[in-house]
Amino acid sequence: MKHILFFILFFTALTTSAQGEFNSGFKPIPAPKFSSKPNKKTPIPEVKDPQAQKTDIPDIKTPNVFDNTSITPKSRFQIGEEKSKFSMSTENDFANPGDRYIPKMEKDLDKALREAGLKEGRGELVKKNISLGEFKTKSDYFIVKFRDFGAIDGDLVKISSNDKVIQNQLLLDSNFKQIKIVLTDGFNKLDFEALNIGSLGGNTAEIQVFDDKGTLITNDYWNNLAAGFKASIIV
C-alpha cells in the first residue's frame, strides 16, 4: 500500500515539473503588422515588338527576273510610259478593227434596198411617163389603193380617169388609202401623177387595183418618179 502511494506522488510531481518547463520555454510569435495604406502598383513590364528587335537584320528582297536584262530584255513600251507616236493609221487606240468595213456595208445595203424598191434616195429620178399594164374587165368600177412603200416623206399624187380629175391631191403614208374609179364602156385611161418628190427622194408608191367583186387585178409600184410625170393603167 505504501509502495503504491509513493508511485502516485512521484508521478504527479514529475508531471507538474515537465509542464512548468514546457510553459516556461514557449514564446508566442506576434502577428505581422500591416499598414492601412495600400502599396503602390507594381509597374507592368514593357513588352517589346519582336519585329522591332530585328532592325539589325537586313531585309531579304526577292529578285525580279524582269529587271534582269540578261534574262528578259526590257521593252520601251512599259505601263506608264508613252507609246510611240509614229502610226500610219488614223484610228485611235480603242477603235474596233471592224469599224472600217461599216461604211461600205451600209453603202451596199442601201444600194440593195433601192434596187428592191424598199428605200428612196436622191438618186437618178425617173423623168418619163410609165405604164403599169393594160387590162380587160366587165367590172363597173375599180377600187384603187395607194401607199408610200418607202420612207414616209410627204409624197403627193393626183388621180385622173380619161383626163377627168378624181382626186386632186392624195398624201401617201404607210397605210393604204383607197379611191373608187367608175369605168365607162370601152376605153379607160387611169393616170396617177407625181405632184412632188419627197424630202428623202423621188415619188414612190405601191398600188393595188381590185374590181367590183373584190378580185385583185394588179399589184404594182413606181419608184423615184420625178414630179410632173405619170404612171398609167389602160382598161
What is the compact description of this entry?
The protein is an alpha+beta fold and 235 residues long.
Notes on the protein architecture:
With 235 residues, the protein is of the alpha+beta class. The chain has a domain at 130-234: Lipoxygenase-1 (Sandwich), CATH 2.60.60. It has two helices and nine strands. It has helices at residues 2-25, 102-115, and strands at 130-134, 141-147, 156-161, 164-171, 177-182, 189-194, 203-210, 216-225, 230-234. The chain has a five-stranded mixed β-sheet, with no helix packed on it. The protein has a four-stranded antiparallel β-sheet with strand order 5-2-7-8, with no helix packed on it. The radius of gyration is 61 Å and the shape is rod-shaped. The N and C termini lie far apart (186 Å). The model has no long low-confidence stretch (mean pLDDT 75).
Feature tags:
235 residues, alpha+beta, Lipoxygenase-1, five-stranded mixed β-sheet, 2 helices, 26% strand, rod-shaped
Task: Provide the fold topology.
Elements: H1 2-25, H2 102-115, E1 130-134, E2 141-147, E3 156-161, E4 164-171, E5 177-182, E6 189-194, E7 203-210, E8 216-225, E9 230-234
Parallel strand pairs: 1-9
Antiparallel strand pairs: 2-5, 2-7, 3-4, 3-6, 6-9, 7-8
